[in-house]
């Protein structure tokens, strides 16, 4: 879970102060204020399916 979601949950659901959120997350109060004021959704990036560089050698690497 991203930091933005954690900050928003602490503020909206748990009703914690900005100072308390900053202390618990280890970020500055200004950063907490910036994230709360932004009202943005954390981006989700899709990881493309790729082959491993070791796939061609998988049979040789199996301990048997």
Provide a descriptive summary of the structure in words.
The chain is an all-alpha fold and 64 residues long. The chain has a domain of 43 residues. Helix content is 50%, strand content 0%. The model has no long low-confidence stretch (mean pLDDT 88). It is built from four helices and no strands. The protein is elongated and about 55 Å long. The two termini are 39 Å apart.
Outline of the structure:
50% of the residues lie in helices and 0% in strands. It has 64 residues and is mostly helical.
Give a topology summary:
Elements lengths: L2 H10 L5 H8 L3 H10 L19 H4 L3
Helix pairs in contact: 2-3
Unreliable stretches (pLDDT < 50, length at least 5) are: none
Number of strands: 0
CA gyration radius, whole angstroms: 20 Å
Mean pLDDT over the full residue set: 88
Helix content: 40-55%
Q: Which structural class matches the secondary elements?
A: mainly alpha
Shape: elongated
Major sheet: size, sense and barrel closure?
none
State the end-to-end distance: 39 Å
Number of helices: 4
Report the sheet-strand fraction.
under 5%
Order of helices and strands: HHHH
